[in-house]
Design brief:
Elements: E1 2-4, H1 12-20, H2 28-47, E2 52-59, E3 62-69, E4 74-79, H3 83-92, E5 98-107, E6 113-121, E7 129-133, E8 136-137, H4 141-150, E9 158-167, H5 168-177, E10 183-191, E11 193-194, E12 200-201, H6 207-212
Parallel strand pairs: 1-10, 4-5, 4-7, 7-9, 8-9, 9-10
Antiparallel strand pairs: 2-3, 5-6, 11-12
Helix pairs in contact: 1-2, 2-3
């Protein structure tokens, strides 16, 4: 199941325009803030899919019955580019436990690359909802590997993958390698082209570098 946020008119599209804009990108603080805002909007939309129960809340003047979350999802991010999105998710699901995955591209001399997962940290996932954040879904291989690495912590009830910009190829890769019954993809926008170096076009560039500076 795929939910494309930009298809509905909202302020989300303003933030999407700004993270793509090569001039506005020069302000790394604004770039990070917009990533946080977009992730928070996506978290709000995901919250509509969660399970709720009624709870009585005492007010200064009486008692109100309010539907509240039965349990908070586990929030997971792929380092380092996913960190601003993680803050946005956590601003909505503020009582959530957290998980982190370190994954990177290992480039070869012929220009090809493989994806390596180095580190996974997080709580037990069995019987819980999982939200996994990665700002760019290019080939899809790093996201699938990260998701499968997290499954060592147990199988979630359902996983919501959130990404700001995806390629058609990346979305197709997820469709082929992940069960639609187990995973929902929430994406800001889907772009048609992927370069030979696996960069999304028009995309926005390298989200990690724009947020935190160039890698060595």
């Amino acid at each position: 199941m795929i939910r494309i946020i930009s298809q509905s008119p909202s302020v989300f599209n303003q933030y999407l325009a700004e993270i793509r804009d090569s001039v506005i990108q020069l302000d790394s603080m604004r770039f990070r803030t917009n990533m946080e805002r977009m992730a928070a909007i996506m978290a709000f939309e995901i919250s509509k899919q969660m399970d709720y129960e009624n709870r009585e809340v005492s007010t200064p003047l009486g008692v109100a019955e309010v539907p509240v979350l039965k349990s908070y999802p586990v929030l997971a991010s792929i380092l380092r580019a996913g960190l601003p999105m993680h803050r946005g998710l956590l601003s909505i699901f503020d009582r959530s436990e957290n998980a982190f995955v370190s994954a990177y591209r290992k480039h070869r001399k012929d220009g090809s690359f493989s994806v390596q997962v180095e580190y996974v940290s997080g709580p037990e996932l069995a019987g819980r909802y999982l939200i996994l954040a990665d700002p760019m879904l290019a080939t899809g291989s790093s996201l699938v590997l990260s998701y499968k690495a997290l499954l060592a912590k147990g199988k979630p009830i359902h996983t919501h993958i959130v990404t700001l910009i995806a390629s058609v190829q990346g979305v197709d890769y997820l469709r082929k390698n992940l069960s639609q019954d187990e995973v929902t993809l929430w994406v800001g926008a889907i772009d048609d082209e992927l370069t030979a170096q696996a960069y999304i076009v028009p995309g926005l560039g390298d989200a990690g570098d724009l947020a935190f500076g160039s890698k060595i």
